[in-house]
Specification:
Distance between the termini: 21 Å
Oligomer: single chain
Number of helices: 2
Helix content: over 70%
Shape: elongated
Strand content: under 5%
Order of helices and strands: HH
Structural class: mainly alpha
Radius of gyration: 20 Å
Largest sheet: none
């Protein structure tokens, strides 16, 4: 009985992890399209090399800032993950 509950808990944790990753990908793609549209409106319609590099640099800067803010927030609240998994062995 206890094994069954542990397997169910592991399955639910895996489903949460997969769903989170999938939804994160959808959000990332949506932001990608929004940022590309913004860059096209700012830099013009051509897909020039400087325009693409500008987009890549700005996207990297935004990603780093967001990750630093999230890390600071995680440290402030204790840094524990909401879902933990035991090491497989």
């Amino acid at each position: 009985m206890a094994k069954s509950i542990e397997h169910s808990r592991a399955a639910v944790q895996s489903m949460i992890t997969l769903a989170s990753a999938a939804l994160g990908l959808v959000c990332a793609l949506a932001w990608n399209e929004a940022i590309k549209a913004l860059m096209k409106s700012m830099l013009g319609e051509d897909d020039s090399i400087p325009g693409l590099f500008t987009y890549a640099v700005l996207a990297t800067i935004v990603a780093v800032v967001v990750l630093l803010l999230l890390a600071r927030t995680a440290a402030r609240i204790g840094g524990e993950a909401a879902v933990t998994r035991e090491a497989e062995g």
